[in-house]
Sequence to fold (1020 residues):
Amino acid sequence: MTIARPKPVVTIERLSHSYGGVEGGTLILDNVELNVNEGEVVGLLGRSGSGKSTLLRSIAGLVSPTAGELTFAPDDAGDPRSVAMVFQSFALMPWLTVQQNVELGLEAQRVPADERRRRALAAIDLIGLDGFENAFPKELSGGMRQRVGLARALVVEPSLLLMDEPFSALDVLTAETLRTDLLDLWDEDKLGISSILIVTHNIEEAVLMCDRILVLSSNPGRIATEFRVDLPQPRDRLDPVFRDLVEQIYARMTQRPVPSPASATPSIEHSIDRPLPDVSVNTLAGLIEEVEAAPFSGRAPLSALADTLQLEIDDLFPIVESLQLLQFIDVVDGDAVLTKRGHAFAQEDTDQRKANFRRTLETHVRLARHIRTVLDERPTHQAPARRFRDELEDHMSPDFADVTLKAVTEWGRYAELFAYDDDDDRFSLDDPA
Amino acid sequence: MTPQAPDVQRTGFLGFSPRRLRGGIGWPDLALFAILLAAGVGVASGVHDAIEPLSRLRVEAVTLDWRNLPQYALLTTLRLFAALAASFVFTVLAATAAAKSRRAELVIIPALDILQSVPVLGFMTFTVTAFMGLFPGSRVGVECAAIFAIFTSQAWNMAFSLYQSLRQVPADLNEVASGFGLSPLRRLLRVELPFSTPGLVWNAMMSMSGGWFFVVASEAISVGHTQIMLPGIGSWLALAIERQDLTAVMQTVAAMAIVILAYDQLVFRPIIAWADRFRVEQTASAHPPLSWVYDLFRRARLLPSLTAPLRVGAALIFVAEAAPRPIKQRRRFAPRKDAPSPGLRLWTVLVIAAAIAASLYAVRFLGQTLTPGDAVRALGYGLLTLLRVVVLIAVASLIWVPIGVWIGLRPRWAARIQPIAQFLAAFPANVLFPIAVVVIVRFHLDADVWLSPLMVLGTQWYILFNVIAGASAIPNDLIEANRMFGVRGWQWWRRLILPGIFPYYVTGALTASGGSWNASIVAEAVSWGSTHLRATGLGSYIADATAAGDNARVLLGIMVMSVFVIAINRLLFRPLYRISERRLRLS
Fold:
């Protein structure tokens, strides 16, 4: 599989994409450069909101980005390249049998019925679905369904297989089996494809499968780093080199963005123009307690936390970031370290925690303080939530504004900083006694 | 990839498998054959009747001879299905156009929205003349007019359902279709129509019930001074009412019941059982709908050979289609302008201008014969009918909500009673109107009050079966928690049951209220031979104007009614829906 000089399958240059128009829209992808070479499995690793799915869909021709260039290089025979995609949700037509689903792409290409049938059955056979040809998708388990999705993509013999979080809707065991089967077929060169581009938010999965891992930063998506994985297949999760790489990626992904030289002092406060993830106070408290308790005793590697808590990075990182923002923990080299305030919080009873949280909100979350100030200033001590949502929408998309305000509302209610009435969509200082 | 799959079961030409024949022809084949043969003969004889010259109709007038009833029932059923077929064709054309083209959408959707809430019955006079002009001297023209009248009661909700389904096709399925470069036609047949099937089937069933309501009006047609009676259950009923023949009315009721049961079992149940596979939920239903006819079809070995022509047809449709081009090898992206194209803007202006022109024309047409006083009077009648609808929906709710809750909380009863409620909803209530007249005349009751219940006679069932569905959807743990804390009486209703069934109840009440408005046209003016009972209201206003051939007042009445229906939907039901979405969703 080693090739002296890598031959590109697809090259992407200066690709940018924003939703909702170029001006005033939300930038999803920012100047992304990427190429996938022959014989490579490339992983796109990023959190939700990093635009990794958009990037994949741009290559598949499903999304037309706002700027940039995308080129497929012809193969050795000079033929054009083709792509096929495997979906996170499987995307099978429930009204078609396994075989009809697999034949869908061939049918669109107007392949004659006999050949269609032969090729579909061969793909079904290859992917381990024999005996299920006439089953409908709803009769199958998740793993079997994703096998159909895989067979459907492979049967059209694409040069590049695009996989959009293909295993994240499956349970751990099923995902592992499917991953191994796919890797075996790939190593034995039975898939009939040149390269694979896989989008994932699972760091171990990326290290397990990929030759190259591109880490995307979020909001907007940029290629932050590239990791090369030179471990031979099949890879061992317990191999120290493997573990080390996983740790490195964790550390890289939780690294705070380097403060730009323009802003003199790195802000320790959450400014109003950045979205907040919607993480409940209970979850925050749970993580603080987990880090405080043995075996971590105040310092926990994130990869170990993810393991013990069975959390994907998309679940874990927002919690960690919220805690960082609230100054309950620091992240140092991929480890979560409790701050003094965090330690205190872990020891406190409910009322003390509320007071602690309230002080935190008042000092570190500008939006919460802003809402409180407005309520204090108004004679009625009331303000429509709409007003703050509009303010947020000057800086972010309506969806993000909604989530951000929801998060702050929950925090503010817990800290008894202000009250919120859902029916009227209005903040107030009313004590619901 | 392995070049040749070993030893596969080959189904041969178009899925027709020689292996299936090997077992010989079993009894399912014979039963299926008998059903299809009977259907074929029925259709053939109906068509034979329908193309007779018009003059024969006068010679062989409709008679109240019970031996004719089966034939009449057959003819009426065929008309209903012909109208349903027409509705289906219309639905596919209109809904796909609206879903695919922004321009078409601008015209079609508002039009459907209005047509859906408009009683089209009033327009019979216009359409009959038009269709008879198309086929002079033949019965075909009158048949077409009758079918068209039924069509107008069936098509709009089906088109709406398809339009909404087409816009809700899951994004990932759409991406698969785009990724593989499916042509628009293939995308429609492989992805969009299948996805829309469950909603469409449900709406077709509702439409079929709606169609019955119009059968009476559409089969006895007056053109100028002559009345044409198309043989059918509707004209039989009209005749029975004219002659005050209660036995004949009861015979119609029985015949309708049999017909409705028959097509439910032979047509709709199998279709529902079949359509279950089109649901997008990825799990198999816990209680998949069952149908003995569907099972029969599936067991029949000859079925593939019977449906082969369909598949050949489908294959032929695709022959002319171009193969998809491979994905573009080099793409350069540049910002697109999201602003609407000048063409679309021009189109919007044109559409609005046309709508204003049409309204002005309508107002001028009305102004020729009517005064503003007429409009005020029509509005007043509208308020009267509104009062009736509100009171009756409230009364029906008071009766059916407790009963529905009682049934819904007992799954065994719910399973048994739900089909009965659906059957009652499918049964055209106007057949029973004559009986009400007899009762009112007998006991010298006030028509203004006692005709009113007829309006909800057919529509109250929507409240019942929605409440049943809502009550059975209340999670068991909630019920148990309330029992544990000893919650009962009014608190039990207010804290558990009413919030639990609210979203369902709103749907039921919306359907019932819309149906009642339409029903008012037939329910506020009812005849029994020479006895004519009238309840003052917008419905009787339109009915009288139709009888008198006063097109201006028909139009005015219909416009006022549409305004009322649309206003109620916008001002009452939409906010209620929003509340139930926000506050009372159980998830």
